[in-house]
Amino acid sequence: MSDAAAPPNPLLAPTGLPRFADFRAEHVVPGVRAMLAEQRAALAELEANAAPTWAGVVLPLERIHDRIHFVWGLVSHQMNVRNTPELRAAHQEVQPEVIELSMALEQSRPIHDALQALADAPDFARLDAGQRRAVECLLRDAKLAGVALDGEPKERFNALQRELAELSTRFSNNTLDATKAFWLDLASEDEVAGLPPSLRALAASEHPDEGATAEKGPWRITLAFPSFGPFMSHAKRRDLREQVYRAYFTRASSGEHDNTPLVREILRKKRALARLLGYGTYAELSLASKMARDVGAVETLLEELRVVALPAAERDLAELEAFARAHGQSEPLARWDMTFWAERMREQRFDYTDEELRPYFPLPRVLEGLFDLTERLFGVRVRAAQGKAATWHPDVLYFEVLNGDGTPRAAFFLDAYARSADKRGGAWMDDCLGRTTAHGGVRLPVAYLTCNFTPPLAGKPAQLSFDEVLTLFHEFGHGLQHMLTQVDHGLVAGIANVEWDAVELPSQFMENWCYHRATVLGFSGHVDTGEPLPDALFEKLVAARTFREGTALLRQLDFGLTDLELHHRYDPDGAESPEDVMLRIREKTAVGPAFAEDRYLNTFGHIFAGGYAAGYYSYKWAEVLSADAFAAFEEEGLEHEAALADVGRRFAETVLALGGSVAPMEVFKAFRGREPSTEALLRHAGLAPSA
User: Fold this and answer.
1) SS3 readout for 97-154
2) Contacts of 624 (CB under 8 A, 6+ apart)
3) Would you say residue 594 lies in a domain?
4) Measuring CA to CA, how many Å separate 120 from each of 117, 139, 180, 650?
5) 3-state secondary structure of 306
6) Any idea what the CATH number is for the domain that residue 302 is in?
7) Is the Cβ–Cβ distance between 50 and 109 less than 8 Å?
8) What pTM did the predictor assign?
9) Is residue 23 domain-shared with residue 102, that is, in the same domain?
């Protein structure tokens, strides 16, 4: 195709749905630089003319932020789902320039002074709650971005911001590359003994041999979780489990993809950043914009949960060791044995296997049931709209969300399946477009929902594991908060400016419905017969909900406490290494065999390449909120549809509708009528004192 015939650069489109089909890596540098030039000019004009009114400073500032997000958000999304060497190079070239403009916006004294004058004016009280909250958040963010700094401290602060962004990108790329660098090819029946048919089919599809079949192989096991997770749960060959386990938990810890020096350097620069702003530690800086009051409040919650989880986890371990001995393992348990024997114990105790469940959860049926639940609870309909929007991969689905009267409310993309070649692992929700009136009429929100599920195999729809069902409901919960907002001010609509430790509330809330009989019957349907999940299997699933929950809770507390320690008390210039910190925390958060070579910190992207630094505790903090929120539905009776709809309407009008326009504790109290309690969380986990 000649240059004349090439489609225009999609980054130069004014707004609306991105033109993913036209996007190329070569669009990034010219497209981003054109945007930056436009927004630098807009910034200069705003600084020259900023007036202490909503229209005089906030709206033009939102428009600048929105344009940056539209362009750079598209590039960042492509980095996550279509990562190529060419895109990486382009991203690396212009990322410092994007950061420079972002810092200029947040550090602008004329804009800050206009915002402060607006906040101090008598007319400020006449703004609506969302407008006032937007101004307060802008002032807070300006402070945390160094607006008060001058001279050398400001230059140092800005340099640290640029360096941290570059280090985080390198960390993420190293993790992806290290994950892709390992595979284990298997050729004999002995080597795949125990593997369920779904994993054999996936492993055959991953093998480069075009003649590979699920029945005869050859098979390839990778470190992508749809391959790694089931392999560790089912492979009978202990030596192969060890090999794969070691590869997974030592990723990015040697050679060209080694993240070891990056971990300490990121921690060092974050501490320096915090001190420039007058905070003693990065954790204190992080919590300045979160729901938790301070580090002490976080540690109090985590300790309250730890003292309950630890004895439960010790009981879990004793049971597992006895079970493994009774079933033929003479060697002491190693880390690569834990998942295998836990799965065997679960199968025996509850008399079902994950493989039995998968056929009942074909993705199209699960989506249908999820959307039906959404309509029953929140009064909105979801319908497929394939063909109405370009996508970045043929597997990506597009849906519209409609009000009860059929008018448009929102939309979302669903990228469901793992692609080991160019897509990062994990699952996440991100905003494509946010709700706003800054450009005139109401622009409706659009979300990205990204997962890494086992793809369709053997000509049948993708059949989800129950964990994958939970993940889908979780990410959709995030999407609901973004899409069902009723706030028209883009700076506080949907998930915008929802405190980080409250943002998991709707996502974890939605997971609870996966244990509600009517809902499960609604989203299950055998891939061959359409029959819903049998009652007997459902009862076993519910009974297994609290299986080894002490172990699972303790693991999450280990992550949260390690994260907090690294960002609060740890000295990255001292003799202690980050791995030493990890081991020190594990003295009070771990039971069972150790794995001395463990380098999970080197792939802990949540805190080193994501937004969870000094904030991983948020999952448990928000789970307290979400469990207590679901308890409001339990109190009304989960089988009473009319009552559920009434509580669902209140949830939609508060937690989902208000977004970041109201402080999260006030949002929670508006829904629940009181502050949250840990009682429901411990009860759901089977760890309540009376349990």
Assistant:
1) HHHHHHHHHHCCHHHHHHHHHHHHCHHHHHCCHHHHHHHHHHHHHHHHCCCCCCHHHH
2) 301, 676, 677, 678, 680, 681
3) yes
4) 5, 12, 54, 34
5) helix
6) 1.10.1370.10
7) no
8) 0.89
9) yes
- Tell me: do 38 and 124 sit in the same domain: yes
Distance CA 335, CA 245 (A): 8
CA atoms within 13 A on the CB side of 496: 31
Based on the fold, state whether residues 49 and 36 are members of the same structural domain. yes
Q: Can you give the three-state secondary structure of 181-223, one letter per residue?
A: HCEEEECCCCCCCCCCHHHHHHHHHHCCCCCCECCCECEEEEC
Six token digits for residue 25: 């890596």
Q: What are phi and psi of 369, to 5 degrees?
A: -70, -40
Q: How many domains does the chain have?
A: 3
Whether the CA torsion 134, 135, 136, 140 is positive or negative: it is positive
Measured CA to CA, the distance from residue 471 to residue 521 in angstroms comes to 18
* DSSP β-ladder status, 397-402 and 381-384: antiparallel
Torsion 562-566-572-575 (CA) sign: negative
| Separation between Cα atoms, residue 42 and residue 49, nearest integer Å | 11
**Full DSSP string of 381-442:** EEEE-TTSS--SSTT-EEEEEE-TTS-EEEEEEEEEE--TTT--SS-EEEEEE--B-TTSSP
Asked if residue 447 is part of any domain, the answer here is no
The parent domain of residue 73 ranges over 10-148
Q: What is the 3-state secondary structure (H, E, C) of 602-651?
A: HHCHHHHCCCCCCCCCHHHHHHHHHHHHHHHHHHHCCCCHHHHHHHHHHH
Q: Is residue 441 part of a domain?
A: no
Residue 419: partners with Cβ closer than 8 Å, 6 or more residues away: 81, 393
Give 362's DSSP letter. B
Q: Which two tokens stand for residue 222?
A: 């990778």
Beta-bridge partner residues of 408: 402
Amino acid identity, position 95: Q
Looking from the CA of 346 toward its CB, the CA atoms found within 13 Å total 23
Q: In terms of Cα–Cα distance, which of 37, 12, 32 is closest to 22? A: 12
600 is written with which tokens?
């999970």
Which of 616, 638, 665 is the endpoint of a domain? 616
Query: How far, in Å, CA of 572 to CA of 274, rounded?
Result: 14
Report pLDDT for 5. 59
Compute and round to an integer the Cα radius of gyration of the chain: 25
Q: What is the mean pLDDT of each run of 10 residues along the chain (691 residues)?
A: 66 91 96 98 98 97 97 96 96 96 96 98 96 97 96 97 96 95 97 96 95 97 95 98 98 97 98 98 96 94 94 97 97 97 96 92 98 97 95 97 97 94 91 95 97 92 96 98 98 95 95 96 96 95 94 96 98 97 96 95 96 94 94 91 93 97 96 93 82 43
- CA-CA distance, 613 to 161, in Å (whole number)? 14
Report the C-alpha dihedral over residues 613, 228, 465, 502, rounded to 10 degrees: 0
Neighbours of 155 (CB within 10 A): 11
- Please check whether residue 325 lies inside any domain of the structure: yes
239, 263: one domain: no
18-54: b (≥16 Cβ within 10 Å) or e: bbbeebbbebbbebbeebbeebbebbeebbeebebeb
DSSP string, 477-506: HHHHHHHS-----GGGSTTTT--TTTTTHH
Q: pLDDT tens for residues 401-422?
A: 999 999 999 999 999 999 878 8
Residues recognised as catalytic = 475
Same domain, 15 and 139: yes
**Among all chains, which residue has been given the structure tokens 């320096």?**
272
In eight-state DSSP terms, residue 515 is G
Closest residue by Cα to residue 384 from 396, 394, 376, 373? 396
CB 168 within 8 A of CB 266: yes
Q: 438-449: per-residue pLDDT in tens?
A: 998 999 999 999
